[in-house]
Specification:
Order of helices and strands: EHEHEHEHEHEEEHHEHEHHHHH
Largest sheet: 8 strands, mixed
Number of helices: 13
Structural class: alpha/beta
């Protein structure tokens, strides 16, 4: 078979998993996402597929089929990362946290859509202690509804799949009971400091330096104080950098090529730091945290620490601690974070830094998603050919929406993402 397999992305965000599955050869015909800002960015980057600005809590499989190009076609895989903040290793652990109820809507939609396979991505904390009981409950629900799940579930580190970042996430893989289990992807790179004989037989994971070395220095461009893009002079890229700039195309990349000027630097709005902050950043050794801000200073010859998303609007809209650039006393830009997350340079984010970092920090690195998706392509026994049909990304207005305009564009309530509730301090 040469037809591209069909996928559905639930909890799509800006589209990290969508892109990874596309790179593996899937047509992700529909993605579901609640946040209108994320939907707008997703629609910009994937204009040829459907984005549904809806909550998984109030949508059915029939609606997903009928509103998109899927209709009555058989779906090969449904994937997504339902939020499970109650199990996060960096927050409080509450087994009955109501935020985890979205997992059961993921299960409901998988059963409703009846794909051949499903992939559920989640936090590593879900595998710790009593939280394994929650996984057992997920397994039971699937196995009582015609699906089997690989009980030997794995936590995968993006650094083992060519991503210059230490980022561990749980992946649950399952399929209909009449089908063959997909395997977990084998490691294809080893982190720079790995010493085992087995690891050293693999090529090294790209370092922070290799990820960022060709990007123009944003402080040389005054325009970037007012806008997030500029035509700029790039340096000599590493092999990884050339891949991110689309200067070369790997044989296993089956994504649709995008029309893009590789002299355009995007998602690079500058941050104004005080001189005191810059001095502290400069004095911080590589690989250490700056003592006041607690920001981590990147080691050019190591990997990026896990990029975080920050808090939602109703929780204060705080930006997550951003790493300090290894060579310049400033925090990294959204584009630099995107490089460290394996997003190609044509992929655009919202120009507001808070939105941009949330869109990256909440997403699965595309190269990690591609590694998982490739194993599903293998069991589907589909031969996919590279596509030369260049897609245009020209609806720039989608990137400039604030919440009100994005909600209006998608016809949803502007308070679908609840605003921050400020306490009235007046007597």
């Amino acid at each position: 078979m040469k037809k591209r397999p069909i996928a559905v992305d639930l909890f799509a965000g800006a589209g990290g998993m969508t892109l990874g599955f596309e790179q593996a050869g899937f047509d992700v015909l529909v993605s579901v996402e609640l946040d209108p800002i994320h939907c707008a960015v997703h629609k910009f980057n994937f204009p040829f597929w459907t984005i549904l600005c809806r909550s998984v809590e109030d949508i059915t499989g029939a609606e997903i089929r009928n509103i998109s190009q899927i209709k009555d076609q058989e779906i090969d895989v449904v994937f997504g990362g339902p939020p499970c903040q109650g199990f996060s290793l960096i927050g409080k652990r509450c087994f009955d946290d109501p935020r985890n109820s979205l997992v059961f809507h993921f299960i409901r939609l998988v059963i409703d859509l009846q794909p051949k396979y499903f992939v559920m991505e989640n936090v590593k904390g879900m595998t710790v202690g009593k939280h394994k009981e929650f996984i057992a409950e997920i397994v039971d629900k699937f196995e009582n509804n015609g699906y089997q799940i690989n009980h030997n579930y794995q936590v995968l580190n993006a650094a083992n799949y060519g991503v210059p970042q230490n980022r561990e996430r749980l992946f649950l893989l399952g399929c209909r009971q009449d089908l063959e289990f997909p395997k977990y992807p084998v490691k294809i790179t080893h982190p720079p400091k790995a010493k085992s004989e087995k690891s050293l037989k693999l090529p090294p994971t790209p370092t922070v330096l290799e990820a960022l070395q060709d990007l123009p220095e944003v402080e040389n461009y005054q325009e970037l104080l007012q806008q997030d893009w500029v035509f700029a002079k790039f340096g000599q890229p590493s092999k990884y950098g050339a891949k991110m700039r689309n200067l070369c195309r790997e044989k296993n990349n089956y994504s649709y090529p995008r029309q893009f000027d590789d002299s355009l630097l995007t998602s690079s709005l500058r941050t104004k730091h005080s001189e005191q902050s810059r001095e502290r950043f400069k004095a911080t050794p590589h690989g250490k945290n700056e003592p006041i801000s607690r920001f981590h200073k990147l080691d050019p010859h190591g990997l990026c620490n896990t990029l975080r998303a920050g808090t939602a609007s109703n929780k204060g809209a705080f930006t997550s601690p951003r790493p300090i650039h290894p060579d310049v006393p400033r925090c990294i830009t959204v584009r630099e974070a995107a490089r460290l997350h394996s997003y190609p340079d044509w992929f655009r984010f919202h120009p507001t830094k808070w939105h941009g970092f949330r869109q990256i920090g909440n997403s699965v690195p595309p190269l990690l998603a591609q590694a998982v998706a490739t194993e599903i392509v293998k069991v589907l026994n589909i031969k996919i050919e590279q596509n030369t049909n260049i897609k245009s990304l020209d609806n720039l207005s989608l990137l400039a929406f604030d919440m009100s305009k994005a909600a209006s564009y998608f016809g949803v309530d502007p308070d679908v993402i609840k605003p921050r509730i400020r306490e009235n301090t007046r007597k």
